[in-house]
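Office hours follow-up: a student asked to see two folded examples consecutively, so here they are.
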Amino acid sequence: MKKDDYQLRRIKPLDPTVVNKIAAGEIIERPENAVKELLENALDAGSTSIEVLLKDGGLKLLQISDNGAGIHYDDLPYLCQRFSTSKLEKFEDLQQIQTFGFRGEALASISHVAKVTITTKREGDLHAWRAFYVDGKLAPTAPHNTSAPQPCAGKQGTVITVEDIFYNVPGRKAALKHANEEYRRILNLMQKYAIHSEKVSFSCKKVGETVASISLSSRLSIKDKIRHVFGTLAVKHLKALKIPEGTINVESFHADGLISSADYEDKKSIFIVFINNRLVESIELKNAIDETYSKFLHKGASYFVYLSLSMKPEQVDVNFHPSKRIVHFLYDHEIIGAISDKLAELLKNTDEQRSFTMQTTIPSITMVKTPELPSQKNKKIYENNMVRTDPREQSIKAMFSSSQKSAALNSDIQHSQSKEVANEETPAESNPSPSPQKAMEDDVREEVEDGIIIPCELESIRQLQNEVLNSMHLLATNILSEHKYVGLVCPNKRIAAIQHNIGLYLVDYGKLAYHFFYQICLTEFANYGKIYMNPPIPLEKILAVSFTDEDVELYQKTRKLLIARRDMLNEYFSIEISAEGFLSALPCLSKGYKPFVNRLPLFLKGISPDYVDWLDERACLEGVMKALAKFYVPIRLLPDNATSEEISYMERILEEFFFPEFRRRLICPKELFEQMAIFQVASLPRLYTVFERC
């Protein structure tokens, strides 16, 4: 640019729209920052349950639902304006701030780079209010509509939906990584807050998926949450770090946390630090932790550190960084020194108890025995007590390409679902006549529909969920969460074998699958996917298989009931029935497994008035969900009729879907353990004893 051009340029204020977008770029760098801001707002509102729904890593859709205090109607016009806050009145208040949000920039910044919809309801309000925001201001949802908040249905709390983030900043959007990477970052963020927030439940899932990627209950302890997130081995080597108040000369300072011992091994280090319940980064503290661990670990070794520091609010500068990610605090040298000293003390104690296995390269050469410490001799593990497998190990089948597995699985599903079902032991599962059954199967084509999950919660569903939690058998649930699948034992009795530590167990996978799908029905209530029937099937054709000639009255009553309750069935259970009596869609509880179509008549009979009390809300919902869970349970394979393809399919679906899901999310009720659905048949020490006698 020429000198004359510089002389012609004058200084002038920027347009407010440009200013707001620049400010938004400092606060919201990627979807992860938006989730963090909204997550902290939900915690400030006193929420005990926070659910996050994402599409394309949050770029297309980002929705956070909480059950907090909600937002007052009169505050909605100012909600997304910059520097509008209920936390501050004067600058001096920053010295005493104890909430997460305080400057009023989070929602304002998000609304300048995305389209924001907020649905909120306070306790005592007759209904909820929905407002739409663009560029920090209320905006109409459609042309010629008013921009004022509109009344709508909703539960207590707030639902914030952020769509098309960075739609007006294409350069920022193009610079972001793949959607899966953004999703991974958000999951990592939520895991950290879930571990620290003891009385708050967290869940996060992708749009269209029935199973949450992270689901941590408020009932779990910190160690239990770490076990769910990072695995059992991580918790095994954790030690408590505690620095009581008064240990150092810093007023009101104390620290709690969990640190890994020198025996901890993982691919990468985990460092989580909260100061006054705020997730922050501290480069000085991390460098000190790294230096302390380097004295006890070999180069490149990893560690796990979770710290919660508490100090006076005026000792922390939370306004140091625009995104509040980095904070400065007084007496940092004293605090970091105390943490490093305590960490070194714990590591020294565990380092003295470490043991190593040594073996010469050539087995024929005499082994050189190294002297053992007394602690090592006392902790010697004999071969008959060694665990041979780890549930996280890869199997040989896992090394095949995903496309090969998918093609084989789809082939088996198509073959197996074309077979007839017989000899089920439940009262509602009588053998259907084959001719109408076959005719019905010819009309079924399965398609799964994805959709945005809308929060839905009823008191009866909450009661049923609490019943499941209260009925949990801790030992059985622990066995399932840490087991190693062995194989199919008896497809007729639906028995499989699993290993847990040094024990071999037989399990009734039919009963486990029933409770598994019932729990999915509860956790994903009113948010199931759909399996479409193309073309739709008349109810008469299905019910004709279920009922005998003597049940004509019940047959007619069931048909009329299903048509009359079709709106409720569609809203809550994704069962689409037309006014003319055609069934066009069924609920899809999992993309990895579809129910056997020929059990559809038994399912409809199972929700007839003889089996479900349709006049009581709780009994009705429970009855339909239990019938739906029974519909999804794998069939028995009879010895005389089962083909090798059917058995191969059952072996594959058990290993690749059912038992991995049992390990990940099944809560085993006490009744299953009492019914011997999980039964230990052998253990390694007992087998060694038998061989020694032989």
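And the second, which I mentioned at the end of office hours:
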Amino acid sequence: MCRIAGIISDTLTLSAMEDGVNRMCNAMHKGGPDGFGFHSLPALQLVFGHRRLSLIDLTENGKQPMCYNEQLWITFNGEIYNYLELKEDLIAKGFTFQNQTDTEVILAGYQAYGTDFFKALKGMFAFALLDQYTKQTFLVRDGVGIKPLYYHSDANNLYFASEIKAFTAFNTHWKENTDWPIYFLSFGFIPEPYTTLEGVYHLPKGHFLTYDHVSKKNKIKKFTNNYPAVVKTDQHTAETAMKANLDRAVKRHLISDAPIGVFLSGGIDSSLLSIIANEQHAQTINTVSINFNEPEFSEQQYQELIAQQIQSKHVSHTVSAKDFEQHIDQIFADMDQPSNDGINSWFVNKVAKDNGLKAVLSGIGADELFGGYPSFKRHQLIKRLKKIPRFLLKQAKYLPNDKLKRISFLAYENPIGEYLFLRGFYTPNVVGKLLGIPEKKVAQLLQQYTLPTEVQQLNAADRISWFETNIYMQNQLLKDTDYMSMAHGVEVRVPFLDQDVVAAALQLPTQRRFSEQPKSLLIAAYRKVLPEAIWNRPKKGFTFPFQHWFAQYQPMLNPQHYQGNPQALALLKQFKQQKLHWSKLFAIYQVYYRAK
């Protein structure tokens, strides 16, 4: 796991490009503490940069940017979990290797199969690959979108990096995207492809950008398969297949030449990963847990139950309000973009780093794929509400309760309205008042947000799963996990998002994947090893006592911070009266914080 950056430019001098890439990489140094490298090709006006976090082949042989056969160059962020199988195939075809990395396998595979090889990669990845023979550079991002890859393209330049802060390190006067506060206050995050910077976008997951050094033009193409067709199957077959795929995924994700462990929160997902990892790993597995002084947030008894069952090397750390106060400024500094969900990830990765781990498995993806959220029970409610005339739905924005206000989103013809009904933050009338802009501008921006046609073809829980996976998880959980883990030089791996696990889940009929019991398929598949005490209890997500802690966080409580905005001050008052969720005020605070 690493950080990458690069510049291709017809207008900058070589020294300016090298200096720029150096600054970009230095801005991301926390995510690659084990080494730095860059490579210049003056003939193609190109500079690649790399910050390394060593996990496979810890020697200097793994240094990047890496060359293959004097023709191909790559700067790579991620892990390819099936690289050993791919390597065997390539060796059989006569290809030779100089090191033990998965990086070299990407280069040899591209030489053997061209861009068709990208779809054979199973893992999390974002990389830039230069083919000097064809004079083309490819930017490539994995099909699940686990790793970020941002880019800016204009008539004369192409810039790319793993973090937004790299672009402002290159150009401190880079213009802001003036629409980002609208997206942030509406969604609670900035949805892809948009960022806080003008003209800087996420490369879409499962796509690659081809830059032609001769024509100076680029195009983006999808390399992953479309949403798979449903395959009829009985319950026993579904359980057996899911267990086989997840077992194999965890085994793949444990490949590392550096210390590795599992985040153990005490819920179904992390408990399963810990149990499977213990079965698949030859050595005693490391488990890491977070707890709190506030007993209503503690999951310690469930964490200890699993740790004792598998006899793991277990670390439990208590995070206090004092810790929050001590580290909140650093957490802000480590946020690559505004976030309402990254603080917990920052702390759990800090504990992992403090205990000598460089890679940790996380349960992200299980809730989204297997119906773990309350939203999965609301598809019928959405269906009923959408039968109400649109002009009446629009009036819901005047209702006093935030959740009721969100009914107004169902008046949108764009299905993004359904997502915003489920998880949106503020309605356009409130956002407009907070930002001092017309409500109509906010509503138009949201209704124009483009979704793939595949979502229109889905119904019921499958549709909710699409929203949770491709909007919430994609833009909130994965993004926050990436930059908050990299802030500590820790790689987070997500076996539930293994390509085979995801494909197998999406091919299941609705009634096999979802039921009244959240994640029933996973529970049934592992009923022999997963204790009933873990799954037979009310769902309690991994949450911090933020409502209590932010109630003491004076900068957010200071009325002067909100520049006299009546709407912001009214919401601040609601928070102080314990009538507003902390994340809602925190979102406003961040908008005003960045505007200073």
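Two things to take away from it. The mean pLDDT is 94. Residues 554-596 form one domain.
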